[in-house]
Amino acid sequence: MAAQDLPNELLGRIIGLMEPASTALTARSVCQRWNTLAVPHAFRKIILRPTEEGSTEEGFKAWGALLENERIKDAVREILIYSHITDDDEGYWDELPAGFITALQKIADLHYIEKITVNFSPVCCGPESIGQGITSHETYEKRISVFEAVFNAIQTRSNQPGRTSIRSFAVENMQNAPIPTFTSSSLFKSVTEDLEELDLHIVQEHSESRPESDLHEVELVTFEPWLQDSLLMPMANLTSLSLCIDEFWGTAPGTFNGRGLAFPRLKSLKLKYFNISHYNHFDWVLNQTTLESLRLDSCTIATILDLWNPEMHDWEPIAEDTFGSDFGELFLFPGTWEFIFDKIRTSLPNLADFEFFPGPRYIREDRNSVREDINPTQQTTVLYGSRYSAFCESEGWVDPTEFGGVIDFCDLEPNEQAMLDRHKPAEEGDQRALDELLDATKRRQKQ
C-alpha cells in the first residue's frame, strides 16, 4: 500500500515515529496533507534560544511569529528555554534583555503545555567568588532573574482560561547555590504546587587554578540543606523526582539527610552521585513506599572519612597511630550495599524497576581497568567496583582508581589501602543482596 493510500490516523502516527524527530519538519514540505499531519509532531517540543541579536524584541521576532499560528500553539507540549547564547564565554548578556522577557510571556498563549525545561550555562560562579573578582558569563544573580522571568510567565499563563497545568519542570545546569528569597516567595509556591515531575541536574563552581578551594565554598555547605528543606519539602504532589549532581553529595561538605521529606504519590526516583554515610541515611528513600522505579547512578557508600562533621553517628574512629603520625583523626563507616539492597527489597513493596549502574566518570580510557562486560554507552545494572568511596579533607571525594580496585586514599601504602577498602570484603554479600533485589522486582513485574 502506498503512503498516499494510508488513512490519516495511521500516516500521522508513522510520521510521529520517524527518527530523528526533526524529520517531521521535513515531512511538512511533502504536500498539504502531510503538512497537516506533521505539525503536531514537528512542534510538540519547541526551543527558545537567544541569539546575538536577541537583546531587543526584534531578535525574537521568529519566535513570536511561530506562536501566532493556532495549530502550532495547540501542538506544543514541551518548551526548552536556554538562558544563554552559547556555552562558552563568548555568548552572554550582562542582564536579561526586554526581548527575552517578552518572548517568555508568549508562553501564556500556548494551550496544552506539559513540560518546561530551563537550560543554564554549565559554567557557574558563586556569590563569594564574584566578590573576590572571579567571574563567569552567567552569574548567580542572572540565574535568579531567569527563574523569576520563567515563573512569572508560567503564573501569567495559569490565569488564562482553558490552559492546562504545567506538570513537569526540569533544570539543566542549576547552580548549587541557595536562592532562599525566591523559594520563599508566593510566586514560587503558586507555580510549584501543581508540579508532578521535577528533574534537576545540578552543577557547581570549579576553578582549574585553585581546585583545593572548591571544598570551602560557602554554597557547598548551605546548598544541600536548602535543597532538602526549602525546595523539595513543599512539593508533596511529586510522582517523579530526579536529583543529579555532578559531584558526590549527601555527606560532605554539605549534608542531605532527607529527614521530613514525604512524597505520598512518588512513583519514580533517580539519584546520581548520592553518597551514603549513615545506617539511616537512605531512610528518606525507603519511606517513599509508593515507589515503583528506583535508579541509582554512580551512588556510593563512604567508607573512610577524614573530616569533622556535625552528623558523625555510626562513624567509628580509627586509632590515630594506625598509619603513622602524618594522619590526623580518621573515621570508618562500616555500612555496606548488602545492607542497603536488603532494605530496598523489604521496604519498598511496589518496586518493580531497579537500576544500579556506574556513570561515565568511572569508564576509563584504559580498557584494562574496566570490566569487559560493561558497555560505557549503556546503563547496565552491575555490582561496579566504584560503589564505595572516601573523603579526604585536603582532596575532597576520592574515587576508586579502577573497577574492582582499591581506594587510593591520602597517599596510603597499598597494604594500608587494602585495610580500609570495602569492595572485595563486601563483594559476596553485596552481590547476594543485589541478586535477591533484582529477583524480587522481576516477580513484581509479573504480578
Automatic annotation (TrEMBL):
Gene3D superfamilies: Ribonuclease Inhibitor (3.80.10.10). Residues 1-46 form the F-box domain. Residues 420-447 are annotated as: Disordered. This is F-box domain-containing protein. It comes from Clonostachys byssicola. The lineage of its organism: Eukaryota, Fungi, Dikarya, Ascomycota, Pezizomycotina.
